[in-house]
């Protein structure tokens, strides 16, 4: 009976705070997945399902391209009852273009049966070499889309001031990059990311630069609400296995964050008692 009670208490503790809340909508997973760069459609679908991700981001411009049938097939094959589409404005270089593509993304969600889905991952990237997001363009586009009733998730450089400005105008999350997109360099902007997390009252989703599951663990451990991963899974030697590793990494990081780590000490501390020693 005692062991059953302990097991029950443990399950209750591990079940605390499982849901990710974005603009009032609850999601079971804190892992968001991208849909690009996979070697084939079946590998992408299997990876997404294995990851148990609740939110999957799709590039609207890619879906518009009639020559990219595999991407449209991928989206159509996802279980819409458990998958929330997050259209993104990847490839947009101006405010006007991002606003137009966001509108098309909403139409795609409606065609897929998600009639009340006005989520948009906002990307305004005018820099073709380093692919760094345009802070001014992102702020302008975000303000317009928020006023039009969209749930805006802006992709940004980890600038704490910009993050707070985006929160103040009504964005439902901020998505700072950990390191350059697709680089797999991991968390290279740790100080700024921590400042953003500390000062934010909306979810902070670490996007871009995650290279492996330990990066996801660290991001969640420092208090990020979620991570968005694409290249680290799609370009690994075994995407399905890496998808599982990312899912477990996010769970591990969240449990560690909730448990709160021990304080670091400059000195050693014995783990065995110093009393009652045999002499």
TrEMBL record:
<feature type="active site" description="Schiff-base intermediate with DXP">
    <location>
        <position position="121"/>
    </location>
</feature>
<feature type="binding site">
    <location>
        <position position="182"/>
    </location>
    <ligand>
        <name>1-deoxy-D-xylulose 5-phosphate</name>
    </ligand>
</feature>
<keyword id="KW-0150">Chloroplast</keyword>
<dbReference type="GO" id="GO:0009507">
    <property type="term" value="C:chloroplast"/>
</dbReference>
<dbReference type="InterPro" id="IPR013785">
    <property type="entry name" value="Aldolase_TIM"/>
</dbReference>
<comment type="similarity">
    <text>Belongs to the ThiG family.</text>
</comment>
<feature type="domain" description="Thiazole synthase ThiG">
    <location>
        <begin position="22"/>
        <end position="273"/>
    </location>
</feature>
<comment type="subunit">
    <text>Homotetramer. Forms heterodimers with either ThiH or ThiS.</text>
</comment>
<keyword id="KW-0808">Transferase</keyword>
<feature type="binding site">
    <location>
        <begin position="230"/>
        <end position="231"/>
    </location>
    <ligand>
        <name>1-deoxy-D-xylulose 5-phosphate</name>
    </ligand>
</feature>
<dbReference type="Pfam" id="PF05690">
    <property type="entry name" value="ThiG"/>
</dbReference>
<keyword id="KW-0704">Schiff base</keyword>
<comment type="function">
    <text>Catalyzes the rearrangement of 1-deoxy-D-xylulose 5-phosphate (DXP) to produce the thiazole phosphate moiety of thiamine. Sulfur is provided by the thiocarboxylate moiety of the carrier protein ThiS. In vitro, sulfur can be provided by H(2)S.</text>
</comment>
<keyword id="KW-0784">Thiamine biosynthesis</keyword>
<comment type="pathway">
    <text>Cofactor biosynthesis; thiamine diphosphate biosynthesis.</text>
</comment>
<feature type="binding site">
    <location>
        <begin position="208"/>
        <end position="209"/>
    </location>
    <ligand>
        <name>1-deoxy-D-xylulose 5-phosphate</name>
    </ligand>
</feature>
<dbReference type="InterPro" id="IPR033983">
    <property type="entry name" value="Thiazole_synthase_ThiG"/>
</dbReference>
<dbReference type="GO" id="GO:0009229">
    <property type="term" value="P:thiamine diphosphate biosynthetic process"/>
</dbReference>
<dbReference type="InterPro" id="IPR008867">
    <property type="entry name" value="ThiG"/>
</dbReference>
<keyword id="KW-0934">Plastid</keyword>
<protein>
    <recommendedName>
        <fullName>Thiazole synthase</fullName>
        <ecNumber>2.8.1.10</ecNumber>
    </recommendedName>
</protein>
<dbReference type="GO" id="GO:1990107">
    <property type="term" value="F:thiazole synthase activity"/>
</dbReference>
């Amino acid at each position: 009976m005692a062991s059953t009670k302990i097991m029950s208490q443990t399950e209750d503790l591990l079940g605390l705070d499982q849901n990710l809340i974005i603009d009032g909508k609850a999601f079971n997973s804190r892992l968001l997945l991208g849909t690009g760069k996979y070697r084939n459609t079946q590998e992408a679908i299997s990876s997404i399902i294995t990851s148990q991700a609740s939110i999957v981001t799709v590039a609207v411009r890619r879906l518009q391209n009639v020559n990219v049938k595999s991407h449209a097939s991928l989206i159509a094959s996802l279980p819409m009852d458990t998958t929330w589409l997050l259209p993104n404005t990847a490839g947009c270089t101006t405010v006007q273009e991002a606003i137009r593509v966001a509108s098309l993304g909403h139409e795609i969600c409606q065609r897929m049966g998600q009639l009340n889905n006005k989520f948009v991952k906002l990307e305004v990237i005018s820099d073709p070499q380093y692919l760094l997001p345009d802070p001014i363009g992102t702020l302008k586009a975000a303000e317009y889309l928020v006023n039009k009733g969209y749930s805006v998730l802006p992709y940004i450089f980890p600038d704490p001031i910009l993050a707070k400005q985006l929160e103040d105008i009504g964005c439902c999350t901020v998505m700072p990059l950990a390191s350059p997109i697709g680089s797999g360099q991991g968390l290279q902007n740790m100080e700024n990311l921590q400042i953003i997390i500390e000062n934010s009252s909306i979810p902070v989703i670490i996007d871009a630069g995650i290279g492996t599951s330990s990066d996801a663990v660290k991001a969640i451990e420092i208090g990020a609400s979620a991570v968005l991963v694409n290249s680290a899974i799609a370009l690994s030697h075994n995407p399905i296995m890496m998808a599982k590793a990312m899912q477990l990494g996010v769970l591990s990081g969240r449990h560690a964050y909730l448990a709160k780590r021990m304080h670091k000490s400059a000195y050693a501390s014995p783990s065995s008692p110093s009393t009652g020693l045999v002499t």
